Structure to design on (303 residues):
């Protein structure tokens, strides 16, 4: 099929010539999705398959920033070519080296170890980059930015929570917990781990690379690890902890109530209540959240 006959065409602003490809050699273009400031395509060019991200507002792209900084810090990333407003990645469905992870991988010991190795290098790099006050990092957000007294007070109405008393008390206390979190060591946070954002080496020593960095942010290492572990099962979870090493108990205590509130704020933005929000609402009602909140406040008193 001629590239000029494609039903889906690349935007004129996405110049693939700068990525080393010729538009005349494209034989297939498929739109995968359009989200955030990116439109993502699967293309075949000169017999090779790629995933192409065309970025409408490159000045706002955490993807381009992330690939540049992680490559600089020797954190493993997928083979890619980066332009001013586009990112070209090898299509994992056709790669001879890498494959897309599967849900079943989340229970495998070797997966847990591979993910932990990647995250340890990622967090070490994040600490170095923040210590050097690397340009661009000041644009990254923190999940704690959304957890304010005002936003927390809105939760009972938005989610029909029954235990209004404990939410109002949390609103009075949460900002001092957030300030305490910001006083602790910070690093880069991936923020939204899922098996569909993980590439695994097809053969040889098991190695994993986490990709898709549009939610890259700043936070505590523990918060990122907690996010990963929630997706792992059995030996994969144990192997992650064994390989990554110890995390801070103080970070764990301060993270717990803030993470619950942040997740509930996310749920409140959905048109339909997500299934995962049910257990969090139960924590508000059954006293679990209040215990986590008291533990965090006690920890601040011990600083």
């Amino acid at each position: 099929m001629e590239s000029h006959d494609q039903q889906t065409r690349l935007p004129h602003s996405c110049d693939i010539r700068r990525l080393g490809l010729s538009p005349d050699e494209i034989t297939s273009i498929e739109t995968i999705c359009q989200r955030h400031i990116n439109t993502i395509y699967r293309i075949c060019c000169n017999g090779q398959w790629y995933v192409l991200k065309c970025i409408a507002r490159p000045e706002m792209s955490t993807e381009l920033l992330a690939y540049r900084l992680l490559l600089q810090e020797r954190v493993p990333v997928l083979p890619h070519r980066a332009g001013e407003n586009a990112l070209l990645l090898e299509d994992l469905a056709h790669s001879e080296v890498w494959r897309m992870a599967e849900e079943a991988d989340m229970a495998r010991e070797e997966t847990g170890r591979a993910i932990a190795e990647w995250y340890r290098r990622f967090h070490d790099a994040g600490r170095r980059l923040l210590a050097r006050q690397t340009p661009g990092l000041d644009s990254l957000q923190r999940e704690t930015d959304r957890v304010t007294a005002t936003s927390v007070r809105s939760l009972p109405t938005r989610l029909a929570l029954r235990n209004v008393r404990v939410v109002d008390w949390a609103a009075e206390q949460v900002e001092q917990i957030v300030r305490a979190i910001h006083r602790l060591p910070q690093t880069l946070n991936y923020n939204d781990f899922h098996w569909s954002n993980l590439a695994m080496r097809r053969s040889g020593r098991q190695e994993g690379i986490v990709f898709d960095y549009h939610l890259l942010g700043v936070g505590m290492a523990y918060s990122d690890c907690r996010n990963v572990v929630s997706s792992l099962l059995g030996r994969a979870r144990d192997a992650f902890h064994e390989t990554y090493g110890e995390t801070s108990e103080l970070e764990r205590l301060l993270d717990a109530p803030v993470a619950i509130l942040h997740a509930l704020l996310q749920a409140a933005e959905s048109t339909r209540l997500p299934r995962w929000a049910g257990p969090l609402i139960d924590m508000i009602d059954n006293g679990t959240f209040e215990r986590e909140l008291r533990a965090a406040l006690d920890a601040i008193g011990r600083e």
Q: What stands out?
A: The longest strand covers residues 26-35.
